[in-house]
Each structure stands twice: as structure tokens, then as C-alpha cells.
Amino acid sequence: MINVLKLVGTLRLWRDTRGQDLIEYALMAGFVAVAAGAVMPNISVQISTIFSAVNSLMVQAANGS
Questions:
Q1: Residue 1: strand, helix, or coil
Q2: Among candidate residues 34, 29, 27, the one with its CA nearest the CA of residue 48
Q3: Nearest CA among 26, 8, 48 for reference residue 40
Q4: Which SS3 state, helix, strand or coil, does residue 65 take?
Q5: Phi then psi for 19, rounded to 5 degrees?
Q6: Could you report the per-residue pLDDT of 13-38, keeping only the tens digit for each?
């Protein structure tokens, strides 16, 4: 019975698409930033600074600081 409940839970997880849009928007924003950096080399330093700031915030959040 426990295995059946685990299987049902796994199937529900696979069908759950609530977080999918956020991931797609994040990927598109990253792609636009990379394309902007390739087309406009002067802005690439600013884009790198922004990504570094976001990365440091994510690391702090992951560590619980």
C-alpha cells in the first residue's frame, strides 16, 4: 500500500507545472542578457556585475545567512 501511495505522489509531482513559467522567464531573461552582452560589449561588464550580485544573494539565501 505504501508503494502505491509513493507512486501516486510521484505521478502528481510530474504533472505539477506551477513553477514552470517562472523558470522559463528566468531562462529568457538570462538569454536576453547574454545576447545583449554579445551585441553591446560595453554593457557586458554591467551585466556581469548584476549576475554576480544575484549569485551572491542566492548563496547567502542557501546558507541561511
A1: coil
A2: 34
A3: 48
A4: coil
A5: -90, 0
A6: 556 566 667 788 888 988 888 888 78
